[in-house]
């Protein structure tokens, strides 16, 4: 949606503030999602979610870079504070990507910790 907004043939002054707000919201959302995945290493589909988050981070980073490179009609060229903020968001996204890559299993296999503990398994099998 944000990428479509920056290429609209519309008044950039009208959409710039909203676009920057959307980018800030997206950055905060990605930070929160990464925090959830960092806290919960026993999540069943954790590796798949990490892959999706890594892809989202890549797209987000590209979007921010497009704005910094003045791709599209919405430009931050004349607004140094917006350019600095976008540069910081891009660095933050790259840092998160590095963290996500470090969290992924090296050999593509599942993480070494069991999904169900032995106590949980015992409790589940009591009925049988």
Structural overview:
It is built from five helices and no strands. The protein is mainly alpha-helical. The chain has one domain. α2 runs parallel beside α4. The radius of gyration is 20 Å and the shape is elongated.
Short description:
The protein is built from 5 helices and no strands.
Number of helical segments with 4 or more residues: 5
Residue share in helix: 55-70%
**Element pattern in H and E:** HHHHH
Query: Can you summarize the main beta sheet?
Result: none
Principal-axes shape call: elongated
- How large is the radius of gyration? 20 Å
Q: Spans with pLDDT under 50 lasting ≥5 residues?
A: none
Q: Tell me the count of domains.
A: 1
How many angstroms does the end-to-end distance come to? Answer: 51 Å
Kindly state the number of beta strands.
Answer: 0
Task: Tell me the fraction of residues in β-strands, as a range.
Answer: under 5%
* Nearest-integer average pLDDT: 84
Going by helix content, strand content and strand pairing, the class is mainly alpha
Q: Which helices and strands appear, and what pairs or packs with what?
A:
Layout: H1 2-6, H2 12-39, H3 46-68, H4 80-103, H5 118-125
Keywords:
single chain, 128 residues, mainly alpha, 5 helices, 69% helix
């Amino acid at each position: 949606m944000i990428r479509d907004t920056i290429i609209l043939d519309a008044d950039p002054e009208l959409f710039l503030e909203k676009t920057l707000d959307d980018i800030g919201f997206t950055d905060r959302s990605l930070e929160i999602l990464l925090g959830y995945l960092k806290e919960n290493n026993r999540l069943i589909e954790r590796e798949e979610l990490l892959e999706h988050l890594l892809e989202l981070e890549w797209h987000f980073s590209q979007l921010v870079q497009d704005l910094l490179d003045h791709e599209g009609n919405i430009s931050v060229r004349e607004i140094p504070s917006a350019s600095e903020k976008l540069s910081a968001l891009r660095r933050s996204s790259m840092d998160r990507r590095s963290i996500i890559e470090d969290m992924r299993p090296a050999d593509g296999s599942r993480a070494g910790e069991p999904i169900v503990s032995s106590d949980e398994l015992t409790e589940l099998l009591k009925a049988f």
